[in-house]
Amino acid sequence: MRVGVIVFPGSNCDRDMYHVLRDVFKLDARYFWHEDRLPKNLDAIILPGGFSYGDRLRAGVIAAHSPVIADVKKMADRGMPVLGVCNGFQILVEAQLLPGVLLKNTSLNFMCRWTELTVENNRTPFTAQFKIGQKIPIPIANGEGRYYVDKPTLETLKKNNQIVFRYGQNINDSVFDIAGICNKDGNVVGMMPHPERAVEAEVNPQDPKPSSLIFESLIATVGAKR
Amino acid sequence: MPLFEVQVIIENKPGMSDPEGQTILNDLVLKGDHRDVKKIRSAKMLRFQVNAKTAKSAELSVKKICDDLRIYNPIASKVTFAVDPR
Fold this sequence. Notes:
Distance between the termini of chain A: 10 Å
Order of helices and strands of chain B: EHEHE
Structural class of chain B: alpha+beta
Shape of chain B: elongated
Strand order of the largest sheet of chain B: 2-1-3
Mean pLDDT of chain A: 96
Helix content of chain A: 25-40%
Low-confidence stretches of chain A: none
Oligomer: heterodimer
Radius of gyration of chain A: 16 Å
Number of strands of chain B: 3
Strand order of the largest sheet of chain A: 2-1-3-4-11-10-9-6-7
Shape of chain A: globular
């Protein structure tokens, strides 16, 4: 199974993601620079965290215009699993592959801490192995992580089952405590917390198993399609 | 063609919280005892210098650029334009 990890100028979680895909889950991970075109033989695409273009103008907006994003859009339209983590999530919303926007945290501080997520939707390629309501101890690390949509859009997200993860408590005034969402088809998922920092016991003092299920869900989903 | 400066002011939509403006108001201005100040909203301003036939066409071309490239996020932001001849 071949997973593309997209690298933008300023990405800084790309190597963590690559390490986890290769060394922990034994997948064929490949880096793709933001100016590259993507080959057709990928099984999934991951946009990692970081500070693409130094968050200039707005987190993710400049990267959203990168040449590689045109290919990500085409592949997402065809149903390929796409995961955006942290800055990757910000890029996906700015590229309009996902609804909403990520605003500066109300505290105006960079927040780096452990959180607990609740799984709200287990019908995505990244959550298929979870039970609804399952908890995930996982870290966040962001300055612009406050998810916002207006009320009518929030109702649409609820109706379409597009809310994938919620925080167990209000940590940054995200609308409805949303930590992760998906597109209408469910194949494009964005989340602010960092699963690549939580799947190994050496770096996760709580429980690495739930975060591992994000990657195991992908492996099972892609495997079942073959 | 003459050169115009188009100012693009981007701020959160009315009714949306603006933690930066609130902090400037509550933790700086009001602590300085300026009780007449009732509200502060923060914004980002970009100055575009563009060649155009008229002030109006300068504004329209910058507005199109801002819309096409999502210089402001239409979900969260309100944008206003002001134009000066250089």
